[in-house]
Specification:
about 400 residues; alpha/beta; Aspartate Aminotransferase, domain 2; Aspartate Aminotransferase, domain 1; 2 domains; seven-stranded mixed sheet; four-stranded antiparallel sheet; 12 helices; about 15% strand
Length: about 400
C-alpha cells in the first residue's frame, strides 16, 4: 500500500515485551524466600534453576541441560568441557558477533575464521580447507542472526574433517533444520537468554548435550562443587568421578531468580516464534522487488526465528550504504551496517578483532560491505513491520536512483 513518502516510525527497536505475570510472581516468590543461589534449597525443594534445566532439556529433546550466567559463559564452559586448551585453533564463522571469538579467546584458544556465503551462513568448502590448514579439531558454529547452514551437509564435513561441533544458538532458540532443533547436531548447543534474545532474563545461558562425560565436566566447571546431585537434567553421579577432580570451577552458575523469570517464557516460546515469523514475512513482502536490494532466501528445510531481519545492498559503494542508514534513521528506522569501517554498537566484523590476528576473507568482506540488519521485537505489530518496509524501500530506492542518475 502506497503512503506518504515522509512517514516516520516512532517505535523502539530495543523495547522488549514485559515479563509474563507468571514469571513476575515466581520471581517475587524467590525474593520472598531468599534462596537465590541455585544450590540453596529447602528440604524437598527442586529449585527454579534445576526445573528450568529439566524443562529446556525436554524442549530441545536433549538428555542433559545446564543453566549458566550468560551466553558467553555457555560457550566458554562448553569449549573447556570439550577439551579445548590454550593455543588450540578453533574454527568459527567470520560473520558473527564479538562474544563468539571472545569465548574462544577466553579459554586461551585461537579463533580461525571461515568465509561467509551470500546466504549469511558458513562456507562449507572453506570450512573443510581451514580445518585441514589449521589442524583445528573444534568448530564453534554461529547461527548468526538466525540463519542456519545446511546442517546435514555441515555434519558430513565435520565428520570427514574430524571436527567436534559446538553450536552457538543465541539467535536460533526455537529454530530447527529438517525437524532437528538447533543445538542438537553436534556435541553441544549453547543458548543465550540476554534481553534481546528469544527468552529474556537480562543475562543468562543454557547448554544442552547427550554426552554424559561432557556434561559432567561442564557442570563442575560451572561451579557445582560437589553439589551436582542437586541437578535434575544431569548425568548419573558416577559420570562425575573424574570431572570433579580434573575440572576447574569458574563460578558461572545461573541463579534461581533468573530461572524463575525464564520458565514461563519457555512455555510461550512456540507462540513467540510464530509471531516473529509473521513480522518477518510482513517486512520481507514489503521489501520484495526493491531495486538494488537483495533479500536472503530462507531454505524450506529451515524453521527460523525471525527476531531480526537482514538484507543486502550488493556491491554498493560504502558511502551510498551509509547514506541509506542515515536517511532511514532520520525516519525512525535503526539499521545496523555490518560493513561499517569501525565498530558501532553491537556490530563489528572479524577484521576489527585484532586479538584474533585474522587473515583477509574477500568473500566475507564483499557480503558484509552491503549487509544491513534490524531487530524485530515482539512489541512491534504487523502494521509497524509494513511501515518499516515502506520507509526502507523508499530510502533505498531514492539512493539507488540517485546513484544511477549520476553515472
Amino acid at each position: 500500500m502506497l503512503r506518504d513518502a515522509m512517514e516516520v516510525f516512532t517505535g523502539s527497536f530495543t523495547q522488549q515485551e514485559a515479563i509474563p505475570e507468571a514469571g513476575i510472581e515466581a520471581a517475587v516468590a524467590v525474593l520472598r524466600h531468599g534462596r537465590l543461589h541455585r544450590y540453596n534449597l529447602a528440604p524437598g525443594e527442586a529449585g527454579e534453576t534445576a526445573l528450568l534445566e529439566e524443562e529446556f532439556a525436554a524442549f530441545t529433546g536433549a538428555r542433559y541441560c545446564l543453566a549458566v550466567a550468560s551466553g558467553g559463559a555457555a560457550m566458554t564452559t562448553a569449549l573447556r568441557a570439550a577439551g579445548v586448551a590454550p593455543g588450540d585453533p578453533v574454527l568459527s564463522n567470520a560473520f558473527t558477533l564479538a562474544p563468539v571469538p571472545g569465548a574462544i579467546a577466553a579459554v586461551g584458544a585461537r579463533p580461525v575464521f571461515v568465509e561467509t556465503t551470500a546466504a549469511l551462513t558458513i562456507d562449507l568448502d572453506d570450512l573443510a580447507a581451514r580445518a585441514r590448514d589449521s589442524g583445528a579439531r573444534v568448530l564453534l558454529l554461529s547461527h548468526m542472526r538466525g540463519h542456519i547452514a545446511d546442517m546435514d551437509a555441515l555434519v558430513r564435513v565435520a565428520a570427514a574433517q574430524g571436527l567436534t561441533l559446538i553450536e552457538d544458538c543465541a539467535h536460533t532458540m526455537g529454530a530447527a533444520w529438517n525437524g532437528v532443533p538447533s543445538g542438537r547436531h553436534g556435541l553441544a548447543g549453547c543458548y543465550s537468554t540476554q534481553t534481546y534474545k528469544h527468552l529474556n532474563s537480562g543475562e543468562g545461558g543454557l547448554i544442552v548435550s547427550d554426552d554424559a562425560a561432557f556434561m559432567a565436566r561442564a557442570i563442575v566447571i560451572s561451579g557445582s562443587y560437589m553439589l551436582y546431585g542437586r541437578h535434575r537434567a544431569a548425568p548419573p553421579p558416577e559420570a562425575f568421578a573424574e570431572a570433579a577432580l580434573d575440572c576447574p570451577n569458574v563460578s558461572a552458575r545461573m541463579d534461581n531468580l533468573r530461572a524463575a523469570i525464564l520458565r514461563p517464557q519457555l512455555a510461550e516460546l512456540p507462540a513467540r516464534v510464530a509471531r516473529w515469523e509473521d513480522l518477518y514475512r510482513t517486512l520481507e513482502a514489503g521489501l520484495a522487488g526493491t531495486p538494488g536490494l537483495a533479500l536472503i532466501e530462507r531454505p524450506a528445510a529451515e524453521r527460523f526465528v525471525g527476531s531480526s531481519f537482514q538484507f543486502l545492498l550488493p556491491d554498493w559503494d560504502g558511502a551510498a550504504v551509509a547514506e541509506v542508514v542515515a536517511r532511514t534513521r532520520a525516519r525512525g528506522v535503526e539499521l545496523k551496517w555490518f560493513g561499517a569501517p569501525a565498530p558501532h554498537g553491537y556490530t563489528s566484523r572479524y577484521d576489527h578483532w585484532r586479538f584474533a590476528a585474522p587473515r583477509r576473507l574477500p568473500q566475507t568482506d564483499r557480503v558484509l560491505a552491503g549487509l544491513l540488519d534490524l531487530r524485530l521485537p515482539l512489541t512491534f505489530t504487523a502494521a509497524d513491520a509494513a511501515l518499516i518496509a515502506r520507509i526502507i524501500r523508499a530510502e533505498v530506492g531514492a539512493v539507488f536512483q540517485g546513484a544511477a542518475a549520476a553515472e
